[in-house]
Amino acid sequence: MDALTVAGEIAPYVTAAVGAYGTAVLTLATDASADATVGLGRRILQRIRGNQEDPADLDRLDQAVAEAAQAPEDEDFQAMLRVQIKKALLADAALTADIARMVSESSVSFMASGEGAVAVQHNSGVISTGSNAQIQR
Question: What is the CA radius of gyration of the chain?
C-alpha cells in the first residue's frame, strides 16, 4: 500500500486519539480501557513519532498534535496533522508498511444490530432513531 493511501486510512484513528487524549497521546502507555479506534490511533501516532530522526520533523509533528488537541474539531488543524503524517510516511517505506500492517491487523470494527441500532466511528451531531424522536434546538 502506498504512503498516501495509508495516510488517508489512518487519519481518522489519529484524530480520534488526539481528540480523546490531547497531547498526552504522545506519551501514554497502553490503556486497556481505551476503545479500539482511539487505541489504534494512539499506537500509530506513537510509532510515527518514534521513527522521527530529525528533531525539526519531531517538533513539527508535536506542534501539529498540540494544535489539533487544542481544537479537535478544527479541520485546518486536523489537516496540518495529516500533512505531518504524510511527510513521515512518504519518507519511509518501511514505516508505511508497518503502519498499514497495524491497521489491517486491528480489531476495529463497527456493527449495528437490531431495530434503531446505529454504528458510527465519529459523530459531531445528533443521532436519533425511533418514530417518536424529537430534536429541539
Answer: 17
